[in-house]
Amino acid sequence: MTPRRRLEAALALVMAIAVSALDLGTKRWAETHLATPRHLLPVTVPDPAQGKSAGEVVREVFPDRTDALLQGALHRLPDPIALDPDEPAFEIEARHGLPPVLGFFVPDRLDSPRFYRRVDRDDAFRMERERMRQQPGLSLPEARRLVRESLAGITVQSFLQDRLPRISATEVPEWARRGLAPIPPTEAAQDPTQAVEAGRTLLLADREIVLIPGVLDFSYAENPAGAFSLLHDLDEDLRRVLFFGLSLVGLVAIGWLIWKPPAPGLLPMLALGAILGGAIGNLVDRLLLTYVVDFIHMYWKDWHWPRYNVADIGITVGVVLLVLFSSRSPRKEPPTASRS
Questions:
Q1: Of the listed 23, 217, 285, 294, which one is catalytic?
Q2: Using N-to-C axis directions, what is the helix angle for 266-289 and 310-327, rounded to 10°?
Q3: What is the four-CA torsion angle of 278, 282, 284, 289, rounded to 10 degrees?
Q4: Residues near 80 by Cβ (< 8 Å), separated by ≥ 6?
Q5: Cβ atoms within 10 Å, residue 94
Q6: How far apart are alpha carbons 24 and 3 in whole angstroms?
């Protein structure tokens, strides 16, 4: 490899590092600044609260949230409940004297959580409707009895492992004992105009950042299924193995192209670096989270482009540039005049 080729390869690696770092940094920013009903942002009420309303407390962290925007999008975090990982997940009301539990608010980490995830516990309702659809003559009481029997063997451990795959099996017991806040039938709604108790945690369930009204915003989404959710119906474990295998093959292929570029010059090498950086950024998310965070949202009236991230931009732009450079015909040298 010539010194020039070594320099181009080094610059391609620098581009890859820059794209992957920017991608991962913006994804982590999106996790802590954008909210949905299933991905909620915590705001702790200061001590002392000095009679501030819930809306005023939230605006100290997110100034763009008016009381009108917070109506129906703000919750009080219920006190967590300590559960035995081996107890039945769908019998906790009777065991702990609780009202019906709709699900749980679960922190992304037990200490200093950055966001909370809403995990619904609506399996019984869905299974009852599915059984009655499959067996038209089945009564609702009988359907409920059959569903209760089906759910009796599901423990808190297995329930959390299914709903929170990013938490390892060895960590689940600690989450069961410390990290589950049961959602009551009232949804723990908080009126933004009402005063709140110091030390409580409020959960913001809706926040997007509009950049160009009617055209572009930042809004949070999780994509476990690949580009445009093409593999959404695939089994989750199989999908994870498939993505990991394809990502490794892709990284090896890009590395080979950096070593043996399809087109000469610095720009094709930088394009390869952008593709490599994007592939690394999305692979890191899939390995650590089991999904990819997307947050860039383009739309026009009823038309919506699937949300994407910086890694997708790097891959797309890199591929387009690489195709353009690779398909460009080499310049022909003008013929030299023969000398007599």
A1: 294
A2: 150
A3: 160
A4: 178, 179, 180, 181
A5: 9
A6: 32
Establish how many alpha carbons lie within 13 A of residue 257's alpha carbon, considering only the half-sphere containing its beta carbon. Answer: 24
Q: How far apart are alpha carbons 238 and 233 in whole angstroms? A: 11
- pTM: predicted TM-score of the whole model, two decimal places: 0.85
Q: What is the mean pLDDT of each run of 10 residues along the chain (340 residues)?
A: 80 94 98 97 86 92 96 94 92 90 93 94 81 82 84 90 86 92 87 91 96 96 65 55 72 77 79 92 89 95 92 93 73 49
Give the separation between CA 221 and CA 35, rounded to whole angstroms. Answer: 9
pLDDT value of position 228? 42
Q: Could you report how far apart the first and last alpha carbons of the chain are, in Å?
A: 41
Please state, in angstroms and rounded to a whole number, the distance separating the CA atoms of residues 310 and 270.
16
For the beta carbon of residue 321, count every other beta carbon within 10 angstroms. 18
> Residue 66: which of 56, 76, 75 has the closest Cα?
56
Nearest Cα to Cα of residue 197 among 80, 79, 49, 59: 49
**Catalytic residue flag (residue 294):** yes
Contact 258, 10 (CB under 8 A): no
- DSSP class of residue 301 equals T
pLDDT attached to residue 116: 97
The SS3 call for residue 41 is strand
312 is catalytic: yes
| Whole-number CA gyration radius for the chain | 26
What pLDDT, on a 0 to 100 scale, did the predictor assign at position 225? 59
Q: Where are the domains of the chain?
A: 3-32+212-327, 38-207
Are the CB atoms for 295 and 27 separated by under 8 Å? yes
Tokens read off for 119: 């995990």
Which residues share a beta bridge with 212?
216
Residue 251 CA, chain-centre distance (Å), reads 22
Strand 216-223: give its sheet, edge to edge: 209-212, 216-223, 292-300, 303-304
